């Protein structure tokens, strides 16, 4: 089955530094990936849609200069949290859908295992 | 725009019993997909079951089944013979047909299976 790998699973950084999170589709190509933020016991909040070879589409209220997204290949999207502050501490998840199989129009999202970011 | 509502923030069930999680949604679309995802304490999101809106037959996956009522815009999840490993947060999700995957999620229901 389709697998999405997210790295790192856990990161601690100092306030003011930048952190990069990677999301890879291991056995399928993903022209579109999604980045979410999740607070404890809450739902996934979509931050942005990452588009291969073009600019990401950010949801309302998400600072694009703060959360830089790059999707330079069909299997890799990165989210960089720039000048991180303690309020950026959260759980970040990526997902993608495998659209390669014509018989799988009902294919679900496949999720990375998440990154717990702690900014001190 | 679509909305997904899960009205039960928390539920509990005894092991081996049956539990139903509710989900309602609102959309003007006619072709779409509905999903239930599970997020256990590990926080890895896992697909539980999916339903195509054009199919009248309710989807089933082993102990998991749905009651899909298109006219009522309702999509409940029934878990039979609950197991301790079913303890997780469950999210109902809506996706438009032929979508790249952008989905609308409910707020989630935290299910605890008690021994």
Written description of the protein model:
- The complex is a heterodimer of chains A (120) and B (115).
- Chain A has strands at 4-7, 10-13, 19-25, 32-38, 44-51, 57-58, 67-73, 76-81, 90-97, 109-111, 115-119.
- Chain A has 120 residues and is an all-beta fold.
- In chain B, 36% of the residues are buried.
- Chains A and B meet through strand 4, strand 5 and strand 9 of A and strand 5, strand 6 and strand 10 of B.
Name the features.
heterodimer, A: 120 residues, mainly beta, seven-stranded mixed sheet, four-stranded antiparallel sheet, 11 strands, 0% helix, globular, B: 115 residues, six-stranded mixed sheet, 53% strand
Task: Summarize the helices and strands and which ones pair or pack.
The complex is a heterodimer of chains A (120) and B (115).
Chain A: E1 4-7, E2 10-13, E3 19-25, E4 32-38, E5 44-51, E6 57-58, E7 67-73, E8 76-81, E9 90-97, E10 109-111, E11 115-119
Chain B: E1 3-5, E2 10-14, E3 19-21, E4 24-26, E5 32-39, E6 46-52, E7 60-61, E8 64-69, E9 74-79, E10 88-96, E11 103-105, E12 109-114
Parallel strand pairs in B: 2-12
Antiparallel strand pairs in B: 1-4, 3-9, 5-6, 5-10, 7-8, 8-9, 10-11, 10-12
Q: What does this entry show, briefly?
A:
Chain A is built from no helices and eleven strands.
DSSP helix fraction of chain B: under 10%
Give the helix level of chain A as a range of percent.
under 10%
Number of E-type strands of chain B: 12
Number of helices of chain A: 0
| Uncertain stretches of chain A | none
* Unreliable stretches covering 5 or more consecutive residues of chain B: none
Largest sheet of chain B: 6 strands, mixed
